[in-house]
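seq as requested:
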Amino acid sequence: MQHQDGHSHILAATVPNCVSYDPTFAYELTVIIHHGLDVMYVRKEPKYFYITVMNENYQQPEMPAGCEEGIIKGMYLLRKGSRKNAGKMVQLLGSGAILREVIAAAELLKEFDIDADIWSVTSFNELKRDGDSVHRWNMLHPDEKPRQCYIEQCLDNASGPVIAATDYLKSYAGQVREYVSSQYRVLGTDGFGRSDTRERLRHFFEVDRYFIVLAALDSLAKENIIDSALVKKAIDQFDIDPNKPDPSIS
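struct tokens:
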């Protein structure tokens, strides 16, 4: 049995003074730790931090300029699409171990003439808390200009459906659904994972690059932006078994 931690960030969200993050890259972790030390030891706020890191080896990129605030707030634009196909755009959100699959999926989508913005989400929990706080303020101040929460600001001018993939249960990324105005598709690790490699585990849970591409194409087809035949083409091209067991109930 593998992957017995699909729920810890969901549990962390139930503790009001627990600030949780699921970073992918070393620079994200550095920014988060620096922020945590400032919050707990300089400002002496009654909070503690929960951070998940992984034991998978991969190359660490340089930190994009100006992303520190986004890392702390919960998401930032890692890579902007080329905008060559403005009518065929998707927004890909990924965190932790699965962000690298999201990056790979964006490359595969180019083969289908689909462009993608890539967002690194360091904390869906912080995005949810910010969204709840801002919308509460709007409710209590009906005579003032409504505010936008951070995730709404990020996706305000974004084009196309939004696909989020994480290494956690679907309810982790799903909790921000009410703050995403576009079609929102969530991939997660609901169920019991059984595999011998990371690749097979991610394929079993349907959160790997191929299922991210499939979710993006299916979302575009549902909006009549592409023909549904492209979805079938992807299933055949990636050798996906349409009758594979549902990981959430098998």
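The first strand starts at residue 18 and ends at 21.
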